[in-house]
Every structure is written in C-alpha cells, then in structure tokens.
Specification:
3-stranded antiparallel sheet, 14 helices, 7-stranded mixed sheet, alpha/beta, Aspartate Aminotransferase, domain 2, 2 domains, 40% helix, Aspartate Aminotransferase, domain 1, 14% strand
Length: 398
C-alpha cells in the first residue's frame, strides 16, 4: 500500500460522527443539518432538461479535453465575469473541463509536485481538507497559513519565511474562503503573483464560491482577472478552479473546469488522459446551458441574502456571527469549546453544526478554528430560521 495513505487525517464529517456517537438528540425536535455545504435550492429545470435531452450520447466515449462548444462557453463566461479582453483566453489551450473541483484540486498536486525536492504545498488554515490530502499523497509537506480574525480571515502570507517560499511548489488559495467567507483583494493578489514569479510556484485558486456574493456591483475578484490587470496575460503560474455545484445548485452534476497557464493545462491534460476522468457528453451539454445563463444565479444569490438577513437578525446579541463577504457559511464564535457546543446543541436541539477545529490544524500551539463553528445556510429558509431559533435558545441556556 502507498505509505502516504497513513498520513491522511479523518475527514471532518467522520470526526463529527465520532463526536456525536452515543449522543441521543432531543426526540421532540426534527433533525436540522447545517454541516455539509451541499446546496439545497432546486437545480434549474433547464439544466436537467439539457441533461436528459442528450442521454443518447451514452453510447459515445467522451474526450478528456471536452467538447469545443463547452470550452468556448466557459471562455465566454470567464471573459464576461472577470472583464477579460476578448481573445485573451484560448479555449483550445487555457481551459479544461473537470468532474467538479474536488477531483481536480486533488489531482493537480499529483500532476505538478516534484516529490524529489522536499516540496512544500501551502494552504490556508482553516481549509478544505482536499488540499491537505492532495499534498500528502503527492509526497509534499503541507504548510498551513493561519487565517484568523487578526488577518481579516485571510492567510497571513507575511508570516511565511523566504526559505519556505523557496520550497513552495503549489499554493492553494480559496477565495471566497471556505469556511470564513473572506474575499481576497487586489493588493494581496498582486503580492502573491509577485511571489509566485520570484519563487517559481503555482497558484491553484479555488473559486467555487465566487458566484455566491452579496454585492451585485462588486463581485469577488478572480486570479485570472488580477493576472491580466497586472500584465500577466499568459496567466503564468495561475490556475483557477470553478464549479457548477454552488453556482447552479447542481452538486450531483459533477461539473467544473480549470483554466489558466496553457503549459500547465497541457501537462494536466496528459495526467488526466491516464487518470480516465473525462466528463460525460450529456453532462457537458447541461454545463453549456448552465454557464450561459445568469438569471438563475442571481436568483440563487437573492435566496441566500434572504436567509442571511433573517438568520443574523435572530442570532444578533446571542452568538458572535457576522455576514461573510461571500459564500453560504457562517463562521461563528462560540461561548464554549466548539466541540462541546456542537455536541450539546445536537443533544438539546437536534441541530448539527461543524466544529471549527475539525477544519483547521494546530500550528505552534494555535488552532484558528478553536471556539468556532461552521454553519452552512443551505437548507430551505424555514429550516434555517428554525435552526437559528434553536441555536439562540441553546446559547441563552448556557
């Protein structure tokens, strides 16, 4: 067996199951789960119809590179969304469809890390655990960069030593952040791009929450947008990962893309050819329909705004939680330990939340997820309101 498998930590939801094992929830309450970031808004009908109408393509092997139509559609969307100059993105060279961002974020480390050189793979802390697993199985050492309140819930890049940047081969960037909801700004992106050029590492920007934001005038910046603004029109050392799971409420479609540096994309394509993970044709046609439409995305944001407004109003004064800049998570501070909070909330109110310490690692005696919980406001509005009332009642009884 691959010995690196022994280095993998249990997934947060496995830890939660162990935490709640043997706990009997209040039988008078229906279960409400705020743990998993699985969108519950209906998948738009036109996406389902596009999928169904192309099921005859089940008899055809899809290509790893994907249909030219899909790649053109993605390039057009990126151009519109991030105000890129026409023609800057070549659908033949800069874009590769993937089966959701999770598998691609994992696979990119396996494709680009040179394990013979004691490599570092950097990531925010707290983080999406796929980054860590990808680093470990690529033979790299994870370097966790704290993202706590002192740094605006963004990674404290100024705390990374020069010799660590020299060893860095891949930096995972998550903006909007899971779980904090923080959005990186242009000065920080400019700094990262300069560091990547100076120390020769790749930035893998996980932007799958980019379309769930609360300012229709100023949506979150993207890495390709920043690179182009700074004159890096070849997007050297830059990769972005996007998905339809959150944007279009289609987590079961398993559809996304990676875009950026053409040389890296070509190498990643070669890796994926052997990996055997081509996107089914019916999924590609459904994806074309999704990327072409913005009305359903705007409606999606309206629903999330409505939930955040109502839930934060209920929690005001009893739980320290602020509206995120983007995404659908509340990163709330707890009056007791996060694990005790999660366990007792489940026992008393039958509401499950994810302890923040399960999403973070302790470095130099500090875990930025301690006394934090992540709540995913993905359930219908009435469930979110019910959960908020139960949480308020629970906190008032502590």
């Amino acid at each position: 067996m691959n010995p690196d498998l022994e280095r993998l930590q249990p997934y947060p939801f496995q830890k939660l199951a162990e935490l709640l094992q043997g706990v009997s929830p209040n039988a008078e309450r229906d279960a409400i789960a705020l743990t998993i970031g699985e969108p519950k808004h209906p998948t738009p009908h036109f996406i389902s119809e596009a999928l169904l109408s192309h099921l005859h393509n089940l008899s055809v092997y899809p290509s790893t590179r994907g249909m030219p139509l899909l790649r053109r559609t993605i390039a057009d969307w990126l151009q519109r969304r991030y105000k890129l100059a026409p023609g800057l993105l070549d659908p033949e060279r800069h874009i590769l469809p993937v089966n959701g961002t999770r598998e691609a974020l994992f696979a990119i480390a396996q494709a680009v890390v040179d394990r013979s050189t004691a490599p570092l793979v950097m990531m925010p802390n707290p983080f999406y655990q796929i980054y860590e697993g990808a680093a470990l199985l690529a033979g790299a050492e994870p370097r966790y960069i704290s993202s706590d309140k002192r740094h605006g819930y963004l990674p404290a890049f100024d705390k990374v030593r020069t010799e660590e940047w020299d060893r860095c081969q891949l930096l995972y960037l998550c903006s909007p952040s899971n779980p904090t909801g923080a959005v990186i700004d242009m000065p920080r992106l400019e700094h990262l791009l300069e560091l990547a050029q100076r120390h020769d590492f790749i930035i893998a920007a996980d932007e799958c929450y980019s379309e769930i934001h609360f300012d229709e005038v100023q949506p979150p910046l993207g890495l390709l947008q920043a690179a182009a603004t700074l004159g890096n029109t070849a997007f050297k050392r830059c990769l972005v990962f996007h998905s339809l799971s959150k944007r279009s409420n289609a987590p079961g479609l398993r559809s996304g893309f990676v875009a950026g540096d053409a040389e890296i994309i070509e190498k990643f394509f070669a890796y994926r050819t052997y990996h055997g993970c081509a996107m089914p044709l019916q999924t590609q046609f459904a994806s074309v329909a999704a990327w072409r439409d913005e009305a359903h995305v705007q409606e999606n944001r309206r629903l999330y705004r409505q939930k955040f407004d109502a839930v934060l109003k209920i929690l005001d004064g009893c739980l320290k939680a602020q509206r995120p800049q983007a995404g659908f998570y509340l990163w709330a501070k707890t009056p007791i330990s996060d694990t005790e909070f999660a366990r007792e909330l489940y026992r008393q109110e039958h509401v499950s939340v994810l302890p923040g310490s399960f999403l973070s690692r302790t470095v130099d005696g500090h875990n930025p997820g301690t006394n934090r919980i992540r709540m995913a406001l993905v359930a219908p509005l009435d469930e979110c309101l019910d959960a908020a009332q139960r949480i308020k009642r629970f906190v008032q009884g502590i």
